[in-house]
Amino acid sequence: MKKQALRLAAAIGLALASASATAATGDSDVTRATLDNGLRVVIVRDTLAPVITTEMNYLAGSDEVPDGFPGTAHAVEHMMFRGSPGLSKDQLAAIAANMGGAFNADTTQSVTQYYFVAPSQDLDVALHVQSLRMRGVDMDAKEWDKERGAISQEVSRDLSSPDFKFYTQLLGQMFSGTPYAHTPLGTRDSFDKTTAAMLKNFHDTWYAPNNAILVIAGDVDPVATLAKVKQEFGDIARKTLPARPAFDFRPVTAKTVQLPTDAPYGSVYLGYRLPGLTAKDHATAMVLSGALGSQRAALAGMRFDGTALFGGFFDQSMPQAGVGMAVGIFPKGGNPQPVLAKMQSILAEAAAKGIDPALVEAAKRKAIAALEFKKNSVDGLANAWSSALAFEDAESPDAIKAAIEAVTPEAVNALARQTFDPAHAITAILTPESSGKPVEGKGFGGAESFASTPDKPVQLPAWAEQAFAKLEVPKSSLKPVSYTLPNGLRLIVQPETISDTVELFGSIKTNQDLQSAKGDEGVADVLEDLFPFGTEHLNRLQFQEALDAISAHVSTGYDFSLSVPSAHFAEGVKLLADNELHPALPAQAFPVVQQQTAGVLAGQLQSPDFLLQLGLGKALLPANDPQLRYPTPQNVMALTLDKVKQYYAQTFRPDLATIVIVGKVDPAQAKQVIEQAFGDWKAAGARPDTDYAAVPANQSGKLHVPDTSAVQDSVDMAQTIAVTYDDPARFAINLGNQVLGGGFYASRLTRDLREKHGLVYTVGVGLDTDKHRSTYKVSFGCDPDKVGAASGLVVQDLKQMQQQPVTDTELMQAKGILLRRIPLGESSFGGIGSQLLTLSQQGKPLDAMTIAGQHYLELTAPEVQKAFAKYVRPDGLVTAVKGPVPKN
Q: Where is the signal peptide (predicted)?
C-alpha cells in the first residue's frame, strides 16, 4: 500500500503523450483508397490475434471551436455516445458492450478520434456504427443537460491535478492568440452556456467524409473490408468545409509559475516551444528530445549525482507546434533553486556547445526501432497510422522513419540553439504542501438515493442482434511453450512473427512486508533504486551505452523487462541478466539513493494519496496486519548497504521467478539463451511464503482526507471479500461486475450515476483477488455536494444485485463482454506477456482464460445473484473520500 510512489522514474512528469508514435509496415500489408466522397481509407493487415481496431479520425478538434467555447469539440465527442438517427444511445451502449466494451473516443486540438477494438468477427458491426454516426447525431437538449453534468465532472477531475493546472497556464502563455492557448477539455462556465443546437451545428459542419480518415488494423481480408467500407460510407455526401483558423505564433515571453501540489515531491519544469508535427524539422525535434531524455544525458544524471530525485526531458507535439519540457524533481521541504539552476545550465550548454553526437545517433536508432515495436499491438498499429496520416500529414509511418534517418547532429544542434533561449522559457515550480490529517467521516455519503430499476431490455437493430445472437468461447491464438530450468526458474515462450522484435517480461515473487525485518521497512525500495547504477562489470553509463548500441530497453528489479530487436535477442538477455544477477550496488551510490528515498518518504507520508490509502487499509484490515507496514525516513536512514545486499541475496530467487518471452524467437533458442544467462542463478534456504494471510470481514466506516489542490472528490467504496483468485465464486462476481460496471452506458452504475443523474464522469467496480485475501471496490469522482447521492446509488445497485436476478439481456451482454475480451487480451505482446506471467505466478494453467470463458458461458442469473448475496456486503463498505469536505 505504500511502495509505488518510491519508484519515481516511472511515474513523474506531465502526462504529455507524444502524438508522433509511428510504426513501419510493409506495403504488401497495406491497402489504401480514397472514396469518391473524399473519405480516405487505410487498411493494415495484422494477424497477431483475431482482433481488429477501427479508428475514425475527424480532422476537427478544439482548433475549430467558436470563440469562447473551448470545449465544443469535446462536448460533441461526448454526445456522439448518446445516439444517432437509426441507433439510440441504449442500442449503441448495448452494441459496444456486446463487442467487449473497448469503444471510446478522444478529442485533441486538431483531430477527434472514435475507435473500436473488437474481435474480427465484429468488424461489420463496428463499421456500420461508425457510418451511422458520420451521417448524423441526436442532439436532444435534455440529453445534453444530462451529459453536461458528466463532462463537468471530467473538467473538475483534471483541474484537481496541479500538473494539469500548470499545463493550462503553459499553453496560455506559450500559444497566446492562437487556438493552442487552451486545452481541448473545455471549461465548466462555457459548458453552462453551450446549447445542444451549437453542438449539432459543429457536428454537421465538420463531420464529413472529406474531412475524415478511417484506419482499420487487424486480422482482416483487405479486399472484402474495402468493399464493406464502400458499402457503408460511399453514399454519404461530401461537404464544403469552412476555412480553418490561422496560427500566428508570437514570440514566447519568459514567465515563472508557482503552484502548490499534493504530490509527495516537488517539480521544476522548463518549457520551450518546439516545431509541430507537420513541420519539416519535426523529426529533428523528436531526436533532440530523445537525446536530452537519454539515461546517459545530463538531465538524467541529476538523479545519479544527488542533485535531484529525477531528471529528464519530455515532449508533446501538435500539428502546428510542440512543447519541449525539461523536468527535475526535488523532495518535500527541499530547495528547488539548485535543481532549476542545474537544468538551466544543462540546456544552456546544449544550446552553446551542442549535444553529444553519440546521444543523437542513439536517439535516432531508438526512434527507428520503436517503429518496429509498434507492430506488437493491433490498436498500437492503428494509432500509429492514424498519427502519421491525421496528425502529421504524412503518407505513411515509413515517411516518418525516413525523416528520422535524415536527421543530422548539426540539425539537432541548430534546433537546440534556436529553442533553448532563457528569454523564451516558461518555468514552473510546483511545491508540495500538506492538506491536513484525515478525519473519520460523520454524516457524508449515502444521504440520498434515487428510485432506479434496470431499464427495459434493449431491442437491438436486426443487423446487430444477428451478430450477437450466439455466444461461444473464442479459440485462443496462444500456443505457449513452457519450461522449468534446473534452478527452478520457469520460462514461457510464445513465438510471434508479426515483427522483428522480442519482448521479455519477468517477475520474482517477493513481499517486503513479510520478508523484511522489523525496522527495515523500505529496504526493497532502496534496493530497486540501486539497480540503474549498473552492474559489477559495467558502470551505469557503460551499461546504458551497451543497450543503446542494440536499440534495447530494459527495466530491472523484482519486475523486469526487455524490448529488443530479434537480431540482438541474446545480447539483450545477457545485459538484462547481468543487471539482475550482478547489480553493482555501489557504495558511493548508496547514500545518494538512501537520501533520495528518505526525502520522498518525508513528503509521501503527508500526501493525500498516501493518507487515503493508509486510512482505507486501517479500516479494512486488522490492527498490526503486515500489509499496513510502511517505511519512514528514519527506517531508511538507519539501513546499511550490507542490509540491502543481504535482502537482495535472500529475496532474489530463481524458484520464485518467471520469465515470459513473446516475439520472433524459436522456443528452443530462447531456452538456450535464458539458460546461458540465468542458469547459474541459485536459490539459498527454504522457499519463503510471500502471500498475506486471510483476514476477517471489515466493519463499515467513513473517512475523509483533505486535499486542498483538488476541486473534485475522489471516492473509494471498499470492503474485504472472501473470494480469492482460486475460488470458483470469482467467476460469478466478475460476471456480475460487468452488469454493474462493464460496457460504459450499458452498465447499471454508469447509467444511474452518470447517464441519468450526471453525478460522475466515470465509475468503476473491481474485484482485486489474492491467494488468501481480496478486496471489492467501487470508485468514482464527483463534486463534494454529489458524494452522498452517488454513494447512495452505489449501495442501492449492489443490493439490487442481491435481491433479484439480472435480466437475460444483461446476462448475455455481460457474458459477451468477458468472452470477447479473451482475444482482446491476446492482441498485443504486452497483453500476452502480462497474462501468461500472472497465470504462472498464481499457479494456474496457461489456458486458464479459455477455462474461465467456459465458466462464464455456463453461469446463470440465479448463480450470480447467489454469489452477490453471499459475498458482497453493501452495508459493510468503507467510504473513503479524498478532496474537499463532502456535503450531503
A: 1-23
Q: Would you say 267 and 329 are in contact if contact means Cβ atoms under 8 Å apart?
A: yes
Q: What is the largest CA-CA distance in the chain?
A: 76
Q: What is the dihedral of CA 184, 190, 194, 199, to 10 degrees?
A: -10
Structure-block grid coordinates of residue 26: 510493409
Same structural domain, 740 and 674: no
Confidence at residue 263, expressed as pLDDT on a 0 to 100 scale: 83
User: Which letter, b or e, does each residue of 544-569 get, where b requires 16 or more Cβ atoms within 10 Å of its Cβ?
Assistant: bbbbbebbbbbbbbbebbbbbbbebb
Query: Which residues contact residue 751 at a Cβ distance below 8 angstroms, ignoring those fewer than 6 apart?
Result: 455, 745
Q: Is residue 734 part of a domain?
A: yes
pLDDT tens track for 243-262: 999 999 999 999 999 988 87
- The DSSP code sequence of 695-726 is -PPPPPEEEEEE-TT-SSEEEEEEEEES--TT
**What is the Cα–Cα distance from 656 to 208, expressed in whole angstroms?**
56
Write down the pLDDT at residue 28.
Answer: 62
Which is nearest to 442 in space by CA: 883, 879, 882?
A: 879
- Which residues have a Cβ under 8 Å from the Cβ of 299 and sit 6 or more positions away? 292, 293, 311, 312, 313, 326, 327, 328, 343, 346
Helix (H, G, I), strand (E, B) or coil at 58: strand
Below-70 pLDDT ranges, the chain: 1-28, 101, 439-457, 744, 888
3-state SS assignment for residue 179: helix
Instruction: Give the span between the Cα atoms of 372 and 21, in whole angstroms.
Output: 11
pLDDT the model gives residue 24: 38
pLDDT at 878: 98
Neighbours of 337 (CB within 10 A): 11
217, β-bridge pairs: 44, 53
Phi/psi of residue 613, each to 5°? -65, -45
Whether residues 166 and 211 share a domain: the answer is yes
Task: Classify residue 239: in a domain, yes or no.
Answer: no
Phi then psi for residue 357, to 5 deg, are: -55, -30
Residue with cell 462493464: 742
> Please, what's the b/e burial string for 275-311 (b: 16 or more CB within 10 A of its CB; e: otherwise)?
bbbbbebbbbbbbbbbbbbbbbbbbbbbbbeebbbbb
Could you tell me if residue 242 is inside a domain? no
What is the model's pLDDT at position 455? 53
**Which run of H or E residues covers position 67?**
none
CATH number at residue 185: 3.30.830.10
Comparing CA positions, the residue from 670, 683, 717 lying closest to residue 872 is: 717
User: What is d(CA 834, CA 837) in angstroms, rounded to the nearest whole number?
Assistant: 5
pLDDT at 14: 39
β partners of residue 266:
330
What global pTM score does this model have?
0.91
Same domain, 180 and 253: no
* Model pLDDT, residue 161: 79
DSSP character string of 231-289:
HHHTTSPP-PPPPPPP--PPPPPPEEEEEEE-SSEEEEEEEEEEE-TTSTTHHHHHHHH
Same-domain status, 282 and 327:
yes
How many angstroms separate the Cα of 319 from the Cα of each of 181, 374, 423, 536?
14, 21, 24, 46
**Cβ–Cβ < 8 Å for 671, 483:** yes
Cβ atoms of residues 616 and 716 within 8 Å: yes
What per-residue confidence (pLDDT) applies to 450? 41
Same domain, 319 and 268: yes
* 762 neighbors 751 (Cβ within 8 angstroms): no
Is 595 part of a structural domain of the chain? yes
pLDDT of residue 456: 60
Which of 653, 678, 703 delimits the end of a domain? 678
Q: Which domain holds residue 788?
A: 694-883
- Do both 502 and 597 map to the same domain? yes
CA 355 to chain centre: 32
